[in-house]
Design a protein that fits this description.
mainly alpha, 8 helices, 74% helix
Length: 178
């Protein structure tokens, strides 16, 4: 058990290098994920469970190991997503900013973010956190009854976590070498 926990939280996890990406990768993937979120569920309704902008935000915040990068990237993704949705401007911006900040914080607190199991758990956790915070924001800021079904959100969180593992592995191939 100690060996397993050392692989997940050991010194190697703390000393892992910060991943670097070309600036166009950030913008291109963010826009592609948002366009996917807006248009693909209209064509293939089954994929409406997938929150690709959230997963991209979590990935870049984890890989850059910085709260500031996570915060800025989450704000960018959330505000662009708000501009293409029918929601009031700022709802996704606020929630994705929080997700980016907390993902960046967790990434340099000793978690081995290269481990697929950790990536899946963090994908699930941040999906659940995102949905809960969004529901709170709708109720608190807009005064509207929010739709939050814990059982449905747990299932959708698990599906997003399953997608996060191979997605993060594919995104690893975009890292700059050297």
């Amino acid at each position: 058990m100690k060996e397993f926990s050392e692989r997940l939280f050991g010194d190697a996890a703390r000393k892992a290098p910060i991943a670097r990406f070309h600036p166009l990768i950030y913008v291109g993937l963010a826009l592609a994920a948002i366009l996917f979120q807006v248009y693909v569920p209209r064509l293939i309704s089954f994929l409406s469970f997938l929150d690709l902008p959230l997963l991209i935000t979590v990935y870049f915040a984890l890989m850059r190991r910085s709260e500031i990068v996570g915060l800025g990237f989450g704000a960018f993704v959330g505000l662009v997503q708000d501009s293409l949705s029918h929601q009031p401007l700022g709802m996704f911006g606020i929630v994705k900013t929080l997700v980016g900040y907390f993902a960046g914080t967790l990434s340099h607190r000793g978690f081995d973010v290269e481990n697929p199991l950790v990536r899946g758990i963090l994908g699930f956790f941040f999906y659940a956190f995102h949905q809960l915070m969004y529901w709170i924001m709708v109720r608190a800021l807009l005064g509207q009854p929010g739709d939050f079904n814990p059982r449905r959100e747990l299932i959708l969180g698990m599906l997003n976590a399953v997608v996060a593992i191979p997605l993060f592995h594919l995104l690893d191939k975009l890292k700059e070498r050297g």
